[in-house]
Amino acid sequence: MTEYVTGELGSQDRSGRLLVTSPISQSTFEVYPQTIKVKRPFKGEKPNPPTRSNTQLQGFSDKSRSRLRFVSTNSGHILRSQFGLTYPGDHWPTDGREFKRHLNTFLTQIRKHIPFLNYLWVAEFQSRGAPHVHLFLDLAATDENRRLLAHYWCKAVNPDYLETDDHYRVHSNPKNFIPWAMRQGSYLCKYLDKAAQKTIPAGFFNFGRWWGNSRGLVSSPETFTADQLAAEFPQVDEETGEVHEGNAIAFLVRVVGRYHEKQNRRSWFRKTSRSTSALTGGPIFRQALEYLRNTRGNPQEPEPF
Known about the structure:
Order of helices and strands: EEEEEHEHEEHHEHEEHHEH
Strand order of the largest sheet: 9-6-8-7-10
Helix content: 25-40%
Number of strands: 12
Oligomer: single chain
Strand content: 15-25%
Low-confidence stretches: 1-22, 51-57
Radius of gyration: 24 Å
């Protein structure tokens, strides 16, 4: 059996290889439908937020892309259809505030008609320069829903539209409202993240956010603190603080870390003392926790993960 020692950086085997970083005893696990976040106390001087007054977004930032991956990954079990929103002919707003007003008017009317609607929208630009939105919904891709969405979008753009207009015919076409399997958030970002479509065209201003979602689309996480796990699985020597193979927190971090390393060769899940996450590690954490409970926090068999 492998022996473990502890130190300032975390638990190590006898060869000195780092297995779990500290402060392990202060970890908090936040478990979403797909994602696992490990929260640890922040040490050092907190950075000052950047000043964004009088500035405009110039592209789809890595931070925004990361948040989109998280939201889409943890709402894939809810969203099941995709609807496209665009503008007619050669006429579209070049002021992002007008574009967002159209979008907000559309979503407000849809929510009045369908209370508790769940959605995620992602904007991009077509090759002609027009803003375009991919709207992901928890609506079934039926003819009735397609006509309803087409009606309210065309009305938001032009209150006097007619159902004989090309704009309505395009949006009421069956190909414009399709069933959708969200899969993982990284897939959605790859699907939408075409460089030309994530660059704001010349002459377009006040663009604002690239994406948004309905309130509560991602449910609150199930939270496990170090104290809760220690109380359920009392396997740490309180006097010496020794971490051994029965330690629940070390076991959970190790199992999720190994999974994350298989998904990402550059994983630093087990190599950092800061807060970190595994985008699709939530189910693995739940399996590992159930395994601990079945073995009463003292696993003797090989880890089945």
